Structures are given as C-alpha cells and as structure tokens.
Amino acid sequence: QGRHACAIHFLTMQTTGPLVLPALSAIAWGCDEGRIYDDYEFEGPEGLAARVTATVTGADQWPEGYALAVAGFADGSEYALISKNAEAGPDGSCDVVLTGIPREVTSVELCAIDRLRRRVGTFAKAECSEKADTILLSAGNVDASPAAAIQAEIFNTTCTQCHGGANFAAARLDLTSGNAFADLVGVESVKEPGRMRVEPGHSSSSVLYRILSTDESAGWNYDHSVEVVASEKLDLIKNWIDAGAKY
Q1: What mean pLDDT comes out for the span 190-208?
Q2: Alpha-helical runs (H) found in 34-167
Q3: Euclidean distance between the first and final Cα of the chain, in Å?
Q4: Distance CA 99, CA 123 (A)
C-alpha cells in the first residue's frame, strides 16, 4: 500500500535482573546485530508498521501456552489486537517486523502473551504516534524470562512495599529485584514451618501461590488473596512454579 520511511526513534531500554543464556530457535527475520538504520524502509499493508530489535535471554524458560511476541495494544486492554511471535537466533538476537497494525493500537510492546493473547509481561514498549507510519524500537539487552515478568508485573507493583521496600521485609521475605527468588525458591516459610515458599514443580503446595489464590493467609493479620486478582497473573505464578520455578 505504499512505501513508508521510518520517522521515529525510541531510546534504548535495558532491563535488569538475573540472566540465563537460552537455547533459542533460529530467527525468522534476518538479524543485523540489533542495529537500527536511519533510512530503514520496507513495504507493508495499510496501517502502522513496527520494527523491534533486542538481544534476548530467558525466553526458553516460558512454559507451554506462552509466547514471546511483538504485539499491539489499545488503551485499557490486556488483549493484543495484533501480534507476531518474536524468535531469536542462537546468540539471542531478535529482529521482528510487524505490519498492518490497526490505528486503534496505542502501544507496541515486546512482551509475553498467553494463549488468549493476553499480556502477562512487558519487556520493552513504544507509544504509537498519530504522525508516524513506522515505529522503531531498539530494546537492547532483555531478560525475557517468566521470573523477570513476575518481578516486574507482580512483585515490584504489589509486594515490595511490605517485602523489602524502605529496608523492611515482612516475614523476613525480601521481594525486591535481585533478592526475591533467592528468598522464595526452596526456602522454608516463616509463617508455615515445614512448607516451602516456592516448591519447584508443585504450585499446590507452595505457600506463595496458596496465599495469593486462596484466603489461607487470612489468619496472618493480612489476607494476601486481595493483592493479585487478575487471573492471568495468578496463572503466570502457578505455571512458572509447575514448570520448575527457574530464575
């Protein structure tokens, strides 16, 4: 439907967190070491277009039913209006071109989505502009593991105020970045002696999942089940634990 020249550049974003080198499948689009060219052009169908580059680690840790993708979202919705799986080469290089993006899309993201194309974790994001036909997003080095999504989407937004924020860690559990998983995986619960906070492979007996998905902690002076109410977030924790709780 015409040739669109790239008009917008977004600053490189880089995530932090433990990195695990994945064994990833061959890239579906030609990699160019993550470089973005000022005059990069391509032809595509009517609508917005986006090119996303990144060097990805941890993507091979996602359980069945999830995918790393470049996806477009409208304001207020967790469901992608359009998406394309983001595969990477053996060195983690990922280069994805997404065309035909509907004008209703307000952001393009490198993210993890579930079978219903619901967003479960965002690793890099670019806002769409009404004045541009093409979005370029260079995400840099990205830890795209389930643990990174849990840290960013659940612990950082919901839990750290009581668990690690302001140098206070309730029940001696620090859920801040860089500390959370060492304090959780294979560690005995202070509140429930004899039970693991996270028992790899067994969400049903892991205290973390139990107190978020049931009212089991109501007798602890605080019912944690009111904190994470989105089903996709609870499923993310459950499936991460059942897949071995890697981090």
Answers
A1: 97
A2: 146-150
A3: 44
A4: 20
Does 247 have pLDDT greater than 50? yes
* HSE toward the beta carbon, residue 225, CA cutoff 13 A: 11
Q: In a 10 Å sphere around its CB, with 0-12 CB exposed, 13-18 middle and 19+ buried, how is residue 107 labelled? A: middle
Residues, the chain: 247
- Confidence category of residue 111, pLDDT binned at 50, 70, 90: very high
pLDDT for res 126: 97
**Residue 166, by phi and psi: left (phi above 0), alpha (psi -120 to 50) or beta?**
left
Q: Are 41 and 4 in contact (CB under 8 A)?
A: yes
Write the pLDDT tens digit of every residue in 155-184.
999 999 999 977 789 999 999 999 999 999
How confident is the prediction for the chain on average, in pLDDT? Answer: 85
Alpha-helical regions (H) of the chain: 146-150, 180-184, 207-213, 231-242
Lay out the sheet containing 67-73: strands in order across: 82-85, 67-73, 107-113, 119-127
This prediction has a pTM of 0.79
> What is the token pair recorded at 120?
């479960």
The residue type of 143 is D
Residues 6 or more apart whose Cβ sits within 8 Å of residue 178: 16, 17, 18
pLDDT-derived band at 221 (thresholds 50, 70, 90) equals confident
Residue (of 133, 106, 132, 107) closest to 122 by Cα position: 107
Q: What six digits make up the tokens of 211?
A: 């107190």
Going from the C-alpha of 156 to that of each of 43, 151, 153, 160, 241, the distances in angstroms are 40, 6, 7, 6, 18
